[in-house]
User: What shape does this take?
Amino acid sequence: MTSAGRPREYPISSPGEIPLPRADGPARAADREARPSPCLEPSVRPAGGGHPEAAGAPGLTAAASGLFFATHAGPRVPQWDVHRQAAILLASHPMTLAPDRAPVASVSARTASACRTGFTLVELLAVIAIIGVLVGLLLPAVQSSRESARRTRCANNIRQSALAVGSYESARRIFPAGCDLVPRPPALPQGTQHAWSSSILPYIDEAALAARIDYAKAWDAPGGNDVASDTGIGLYVCPSGIVSTPGKSDYGGVAGAWIVADGVPFPGVAGFTSGLLFPVDGDQRAVRAATISDGLSRTLLVAEAVDRANADAPADDPAATGRWARLNCFAQATSFINTRGSDIASNHHGGAHAAYADSHIDFLDETMDPVVLAAICTRGGGEASAPHRR
Assistant: This one.
């Protein structure tokens, strides 16, 4: 403190320069020598000690700040303010003292780590393993979602087919023939073989295609029928189907049942025409709704018959039923659906879609009792059994 009671002041040569306080006496100088400033590089101290100004040193260099101490004349600031600003400077700019070179700014471990590029082998393997686990967890869910969408679309296809058959029956008061086998000698001893799925084309928005077909000629007669019969119709193709053939149909008309199992009465030859959409010849006629004694809601009309092995059979093969233009009806011959040799079959897990005569849709369980399966495939068996639904 000065004699006037004010803090001791020190000169500043210009703004931004803060002077190092001068030594006021031997005691102050000795104290500074005993406690050297941590910011002062030893190499700039005079050999004999004392204040660096005495040896012509330019002053202390502050790290990255431009602030240095000098002892020039100029405006004065309190001593405590000088010390405070120096402490702030040192706290914000850490320095490393070296005995033989200028101060060097320290580099943190975080900065060194940030400069590293690329992955180590362990990190790469860990990322690959995590991705593999995620794919393994998500893939089944994606596949299940896709199959659910395919099942929904398949059910809609078969529903539209059943509604079209119902519209045909409402317009003509008779169900369409499963296929036309009425002899027309001598040219067509086995009939035209046009299927029910060809007869309902005008009711599924395919009137233009129906106009190209001559129903008085064979289903594949040259000059128009042969080309039209190879046309693919999306409504007749199950999204879960695998086989792709010209004019494919994955939905067949249920002509009846010919199941041999315990508890199922053997129908004999009559089983092939005991349903609704069976082949019509000179002896068999198409069905009227009034003759369905089991009820429309208990009699199958159309069912899935996906990827039938004979879908690509030659035109002269009477067993070919996998085309929408030809035959396309069957009598269920096995005790369970979705088994080898079963006519009602699908690629859906657990069962197959089927439409009843009243146009409602069911997903038939593949574990359905053979007695019930035989009952719903016939129109007049007198059974009271209800199907096993899912």
Summary: The chain has eight helices and eleven strands. The chain has a mean pLDDT of 76.
